[in-house]
Structure formats: structure tokens, C-alpha cells
Amino acid sequence: MMQDPDQSATSLVRGACPHDCPDTCALLTTVQNGVAIKVQGNPAHAHTDGVLCTKVSRYTERSYHPDRILQPLKRTGPKGSGQFAAVSWDEALTDIAARLQAIAARNPEAIVPYSYAGTMGLVQGESIAARFFHRLGASLLDRTICASAGGEGLVQTLGGKVGMKVEFFAESKLILIWGSNSIGSNLHFWRYVQQAKRDGARLVCIDPRKTETAEKCHAHIALRPGTDAALAFALMHELVRHDWLDHAYLAEHTLGWAALRARALEWPPERAAEVCGVPVEQIRALAQDYGQCFVNGQPAAIRLNYGMQRTRGGGNATRAVVSLPALIGAWRHRAGGVLMSSSGQFPVQRAALQRPDLLAGRQPRTVNMSTIGDALLDPIGPKIEALVVYNSNPVAVAPESGKVVQGFARQDLFTVVLEHFQTDTADYADYILPATTQLEHWDVHSSYGHTDALLNRPAIAPLGQSKPNTQIFRELAARMGFTEDCFNDSDEALCRTAYGDQVDFGALDEHGFATITLPDAPFATGQFPTPSGKCEFWSARLAAQGLDGLPDYLPNYEGAGLSGDYPLAMISPPARNFLNSSFVNVTSLRAIEGEPVLEIHASDAQARGITTGAVVRVFNQRGTYRCKAKVSPRARAGVVNGMGIWWRKLGLDGSNVNQLTSQRLTDLGRAPTFYDCWVDVALDTPVQHATPGIA
Ligand SMILES: Nc1nc2c(c(=O)[nH]1)N[C@H]1C(S)=C(S)[C@@H](COP(=O)(O)OP(=O)(O)OC[C@H]3O[C@@H](n4cnc5c(=O)[nH]c(N)nc54)[C@H](O)[C@@H]3O)O[C@H]1N2
Ligand SMILES: Nc1nc2c(c(=O)[nH]1)N[C@H]1C(S)=C(S)[C@@H](COP(=O)(O)OP(=O)(O)OC[C@H]3O[C@@H](n4cnc5c(=O)[nH]c(N)nc54)[C@H](O)[C@@H]3O)O[C@H]1N2
Ligand code: SF4
Ligand SMILES: [Mo]
To answer: So which cofactors does this thing need (predicted)?
Structure first.
């Protein structure tokens, strides 16, 4: 903590942004007389550069929100009605422990933890919580809802969630921004892109939606959702045909080139143009740009993001795209290669934090969070009798909400939700337990968009009766009779455990961040963390599972152009002023987003008599969702964009886009296929707002 020189009651506290965002900014919170009055970016941290996004600049508005849950609540009305009464911590924890104990006595696997990245903190995420569920022998959770298709693609091809260092994009001469709306979702990366652009770099955006990022690039390839692998193969085809290939790099540092080459030759640009729904000239031009970087010895970089892996073939598409840099030897240069996630660069001591040894030989079943609707209604294995939800809002964010809601509404399900707010999920809880925010607790953070570790110190005391997740699970453990010493570890001690001696805690403590030591060009001479040490175009590990050892193009399950009842493809990418479903209840941010909106191309709108501002029904076999139409050049023909994950209860009709998404899983990584979704749209008569006071 830095005190003002005049020793007034004002202080600046160093922290880290906890949100699920690749930027992981370093924060400086101004505290006056115990009250946080301002949250700013830490200018000493290079990636943050003193700048925060609009959402987190208003952080105090979220933490001191009048709707913050500040005491334990017990349900008094029917599930979903949102009726609760305040109870004491003692009453809540005693009752919860008794309920869980009764279930565990029959079968601990009937208890399921449900959590994701509401906070990315390693301590308030899976530390004491994981110890608690391991000790209990509860079901394990497969945390697949965001990134596991792409993650698996990365692991199979490059060997881990590894890639270029983000700062070197500033020196690239060609940047492909692929499946990412960087200005909306990765703002600090965009600063490096602007630097490169000033120095003459060419920028190409590959995205079905004409985003604010696409508008600022030199070229935009608005392909159909889920067709990225076809585009990648056509690029390879052109690289082969023109011999824009780094033969030495291919020979020394890759595995399976002959086979990949043969597959690429099946993809002339004309074929890909047909599949992707883009002009063939665009594909040729992109191949030319990429190939010329090789010819001229200039660095070419790809910023791949998770937006392109939320369709059936997302894992394979990732494998195809992350194979590209090896063809032209882009990895030889520190400003060349690809970055999808940097999270694998951090030496996180997971076993020490999460203590899987507490399972003591038990092997509980694993429940996939992405199919929680089906798991609650029609379980594989023992029926789910209790859910403990923290750091997530599944009723809003999980696919096929109709089934998720039906599952959460089960009378015989006991649900505990640790939260800041009464979210859509909390409405279905038996108990809501008030959790602290990042301003009120300790944590330590990795990043998936840069390679600095960060420390978060509490800036203020917990508001009301709220407690950190860790403390809630400590107290629950005590009531369950778990006496292991590890439940007594303090949050500060857990912060030290997170990286053990792999990161200098003194540096973290002094500056609030510490850079992980890594080579500038990690794969300049191969040394991929794969079994072979090479970039694995062909994966023996996948082949051993009976899967295709090579990447391939797998068409979507659903979507425009496929035969069936629903003629439009729908994607539902993030809204700039929300963070998944977080911040939807912050009035000033919701005011910027306005209302839930469906962007639709003029031709698709005209065919349906739809104009901007009209209330429309968006529907398919899974359900109907009402929102406002916006006829917009941001939408390509045949694809509609349902923007943002609104809280269901703050939407027009008490639902959101996930009413329409399916529980089908991706090819690799068991992940959801949010953007592999067909729908139709029709004009609707205006409806009243479901919730009073939401104008
Ligand atoms: N402001 C804001 N920032 C966020 C988030 C947020 O909700 N709001 N969410 C955070 C989270 S959880 C994550 S995982 C990260 C990354 O989250 P991502 O989901 O990668 O989000 P975006 O960077 O917006 O990129 C998604 C882009 O992919 C495009 N897209 C959709 N389908 C396809 C496809 O098939 N192919 C291609 N090429 N593009 C496609 C969409 O139109 C969109 O512009 O962002 C994080 N940052
Ligand atoms: N249709 C569609 N659906 C999507 C996506 C999409 O693009 N389209 N994106 C998907 C992606 S990429 C992701 S990552 C998921 C995200 O889904 P979630 O991980 O569920 O993210 P959020 O919706 O932000 O909800 C996080 C919740 O955690 C709470 N929280 C934050 N900090 C703490 C804490 O310290 N303690 C406790 N107890 N609670 C805390 C917040 O108040 C918030 O309600 O959604 C997925 N769903
Ligand atoms: S949400 Fe992202 S951009 Fe905004 S402050 Fe947090 S890390 Fe930075
Ligand atoms: Mo995500």
C-alpha cells in the first residue's frame, strides 16, 4: 500500500482486474477513509498502461451497487420467483452443511460444484473450494464453457496454451485478427495493433460480423460461422502452390507435413470461397499477403481468439489455423506466429492449491458444465441432488436455457449460490451467500492475453456481511467436520502457494505484477511443448483416440445453407459494455447497450418486413426469444448477431439468446457450440417489459 506523503486518510492500493478478459489489467484503487472512490489502471504496468475499459473504470459503481447482496438469504417463495429472507450466517451454514452431509452420506457424487471465471483469481477461484469438494468426494466439473475446444486444438498442435508474446505484435508487418473483436474484448492488445499499423503493418480481420475492429482493419473477410478451417486450408493450398514455404522449418520443426500438404491440396480457394461464402479474390489476396511476408522476411502474426471455436469443428479449426505459422517459418521472428492464449505460460501450482490428494483414491464422475441442462434433467450416472454455484451465472450463460431453467427449478434439487448479486441463477437458489468483490479480498492472477502475474490486495473491508469465497468454504468445511490443516490456510498464504517459488512473491508484492521469464521467440528453433517437440500437424495422441490425426474441416451441425427448417445462422458474441453476463445490472453500462438487440442484414430484414427498432421473435426448435431488431451492415447476409448475454430478467421477455443455443458439443474439448445455431426471425407485436422499472 502506498500512503500519500501527507499521511492523509487517502491511499492507493494495487490490485488486478478479476474479470474473464485476456487483458488482466493492473488496478490502482484510491481509498479515502475506508471507501474506494476510484479505480484506475496502473501506469507502471506496461500492458495496462494506465488505461481501463469503460466497464472497470466504473468498478466502484458495481461494488457499491445498491443491489449488492450483503447478508445470507434463504428462499421463501417458489424457485425462480426471487423471493428471499435474510438469515444469519450461522443459520445458513448450519443448514447447508446438514443438507450436504445427508446427501453425501448416500452418495457424495450427487453433489456438484458449478463454477467458472466470474473471478479469474487463483485463490477465490479453485483453491479452498476445490479442497472442499475433493475432501467431500463430490462430482468433478468439466470446465468447458469457454475455451476448451480451442485449448485442446492448441495443446494437440503447439503442445500447450502458448504462443507469441503479445507485446511483439507491435512489430508485426501483417496481423490477422481472427475470430476476435479486439476493440471490444481485448482492448489492450488493440494498442499494440495500432502501433504496428502506424509502422506500416497490414491488418486483416476474419469475422462473420463487421465489428468495430473489422472496420479499422485494411481488409475484412466476413466468412460464415464455423468455416475457418476451410479458409485455413485454402491459405495452405496457396502457400504450397506458390512455394511460399519455409522448407527448412517444416523439415526440422514440424510433424506430419506430407499428410497436411496433401489435405491442403484438396482445398483450392474456389472450394473454400464456396464453403465460407466469401469472394475467392479475398482468399487469394490473404494468401498473397501471408506468403509475401515469408518472401520478404517480414513477421506475420495471428491473433486468434475464442470466437472462432464455438462451432462443431472449433477444435479442428483451431488446429488448422495454428498450423499456419510453421508453413512460412513465422515463428523464427519474435513478432511472428500466433497467440490464442498465454495461460499455459504460468507456473501455477494447481495441486498445491486444489489438493486433489484429498480425493484419497476416489474417482468421482465428471459433469460437463456445458450440458448442465441435460445433466440436471437426465443425468448420466447418479442424479444431481445438490449444486453449489460460485463465480458463474449458468441460468444466463449455459446453452439451451429452457432446459437449464427446468433443471434449476427441480423441487428436489438443493442449490446454494455464492454471489454479489441476485442473478438469474441466484433466483433459483435455496440459499444465496454474499461474496466479496475484488476490492475486498486477496488474490493472485495469471492472464490468458499476456505473460505477467498479478497480485490483488484488498482495498477495503468486506461490505456488509459478505465473505470471500475461500472463507465461505472454510466455514462450511468446519461445519462438515473436515479437520485437515489445509482448510486453515489464509488467503495471503494461498496467494504465495499459487506460484510457489516459481514467481518472486516479493516482486509481486512490491509492484503488483511480475513478468514470467520467457524467450522472446519461443519456437524459433522448434522446442514446442508437444511429445515430439515439434509443431504437430499430425497428432499421435488424437490418432490413438481413434480420431483424425490431422486437422480437418467439419461443417456446422446447424446453420444457414444447411437443409432444415431454420434459414439463418445466429452468433451471439460479447457486448462491449458487459463481461459475459456481468455488469448487465450496472445501470450506466446497461444504458450504453440499451436493449437486447439482434443485428440483421438489410436483405434478410426486408424479406421479413423487419425494420430497425421492431420487436422480433427469434426462434428455432428449442425456443423463442424476443428482442429489438437492428438492420445493420454489421450483420452479413444469412447470419444474425444476437449481441451479449443479457440477464434473462432484464430482457424483453424474461429470456436471452441462450434460449436458442444447443447443448451439442464441439469436436475436441467437449465445449459448447454457441455459434453453431440456426434460427428464423419474425416480426412480433410489442411486449411489455417483464420487469418493472427497466426502461
Ligand atoms: N467487453 C467484453 N470483453 C470480453 C468478454 C465480454 O463479454 N465483453 N468476454 C470475455 C471472454 S469470456 C472471452 S472467452 C474473451 C474472448 O471472447 P470471444 O468470444 O473470442 O470474444 P470476441 O473477442 O468478441 O470475439 C468473438 C468474435 O468472433 C466472431 N465469430 C463468431 N463466430 C465466428 C466464427 O465461426 N469464425 C470467426 N472467425 N469468427 C467468429 C464474432 O463475431 C466476434 O466478433 O473475451 C473476453 N472479453
Ligand atoms: N450465447 C452465448 N453464451 C455464452 C457465450 C457467448 O459468447 N454466447 N460466452 C461463453 C463464455 S466465453 C463464457 S466464459 C461463459 C461465462 O459465463 P460465467 O463464467 O458464468 O460468467 P458471468 O456471466 O460473468 O458470471 C460470473 C458471475 O460470477 C460472479 N462473481 C464474480 N466474482 C465473484 C466472486 O469473487 N465470488 C463469487 N461467489 N461470485 C463472483 C459475478 O457476480 C457473476 O454473476 O459464458 C458463455 N456463454
Ligand atoms: S475487463 Fe479487461 S480491459 Fe477491462 S479492466 Fe478488466 S482486464 Fe482490463
Ligand atoms: Mo469466455
So the answer is: Mo-bis(molybdopterin guanine dinucleotide)
